[in-house]
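Quick one: structure for this chain?
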Amino acid sequence: MYIAVTGGERAIEASRELLAQARRGDPSLPELDVAQLAAQLGMAVARVMAEGSMHDPELAALALKQALGDAVEAAFLLRAYRTTLPRWGYTEPVQTQSMTVRRRVSAVFKDLPGGQVLGASFDYTQRLLDFDLLKPASAAPPITTGAPAGSDKRELPAQPLPDALHGLVAEGLLEPAVTTTQSAPPDITREPPHFPLPRSARLQMLARADEGWLLGLGYATQRGYANAHPFAGELRVGSVAVEFVPDELGFPIELGEIDLTECQMLAQFIGRDEQPPQFTRGYGLVFGHAERKAMAMALVDRALRATELGEAVESPTQLQEFVLSQGDGDAVEASGFVQHLKLPHYVTFESELQLLRALRARPADQESPA
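Got it. Here's what it folds into:
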């Protein structure tokens, strides 16, 4: 993002002071602290972590406070800070099948193996304003958690829930989970993207892409721009362990847990000569509780697999460079290029203005023929 600006030093400092006043708001009201934001605006924090490409709820909440709640600006702040951190290495792949599940649903099974875990979701609300929230906060009600449908217990599942799609794979009706054969997938934060990208790199870019962009593209795939007819095979929200192998030990140790949302979308596939018809997958995995982002990511991932599946590429949603480059909303390519238009461009504008005046002053008989 362009951040340089010319102008009077006193005027710039005054602008910063006004920004601090706007951030604080009415001084007669209690100031929001970072802990409150992290605890009570979890989905906003999750979006900043995902688009900021860094899992740290406290720093994401700090960025939201500093940015006056602007999620795009907050993600940019978090990304900028991320570039200053030392890199020790790469963790082991997380095992989402061992996830401590807080929410797990599927749209394709009436009786989901292991049961549905509804958890906390807007899906079962009426989408009406709750005016009771305008009243002063009272004593908090006891916290309960989701449980498999038909169960009287309110605790989380004690054991990892089975893969909902395993049975379809066993029958040959769904492609197996596709894994990369590369020993070390490319790191998009260190290697500039060169299209076409392997799927591992595409998923990295989608995971930190702007949610609104992905949502629009995901919707477009269902409206005919990729001819997708998807089914939500499984959606999981929960915590997974992160493991790292230090050089001096040679075996993995657990660093802690992070919150993730995982989605697997199923799409129809007509098959090829060497392969019978079966369902294929689109995959989404993002930081925090971010179901809409994970679902949109899975839809777009499936659209971008058109070439490898032998499908005709007929839509912008299937073009890697179009989808991935414009999706990086918090980087120079999008937010920076739009916002830098606010900064001084009077030299360029004056040159074009003089050219326009000269063209208008030229007699009509001197104009070049069309």
